[in-house]
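Retry 2 of 3 after timeout on previous attempt. Resubmitting structure tokens to design endpoint.
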């Protein structure tokens, strides 16, 4: 279930990272060449700082998809966890448990997403 969730989150992070690296302003790369920076120095001092806001956006989106993937994995292939508890409650028509687990998932996802969104906005403001 962890691998299932990680697979869901890896793709957006990779796509946002590729987009961020491609979106670095060419003038920054030219400045690095003029300063005769090596590949490692170029990545560390120019590419990474310029790409961090978009990479973090990918992490925020990836977290949401990872959470969904993990709960789905628990729903169909686990013997414990919130997904298993939710499927068990659905099978028993236990509306109180269904609503409780759903509420817990929504509060957790909204809380973490709010924190990540605040950091994301701060990173984009600096950029």
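Retry 2 succeeded. Sequence:
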């Amino acid at each position: 279930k962890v691998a299932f969730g990680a697979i869901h989150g890896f793709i957006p992070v990779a796509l946002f990272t590729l987009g961020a690296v491609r979106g670095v302003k060419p003038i920054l790369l030219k400045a690095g060449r003029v300063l005769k920076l090596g590949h490692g120095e170029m990545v560390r001092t120019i590419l990474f700082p310029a790409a961090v806001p978009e990479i973090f956006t990918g992490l925020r989106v990836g977290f949401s998809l990872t959470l969904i993937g993990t709960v789905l994995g628990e729903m169909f292939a686990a013997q414990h966890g919130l997904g298993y508890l939710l499927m068990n409650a659905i099978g028993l028509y236990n509306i109180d448990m269904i609503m409780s687990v759903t509420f817990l998932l929504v509060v957790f996802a909204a809380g973490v997403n709010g924190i990540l969104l605040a950091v994301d906005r701060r990173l984009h403001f600096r950029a």
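Attempt log closed. The mean pLDDT is 91.
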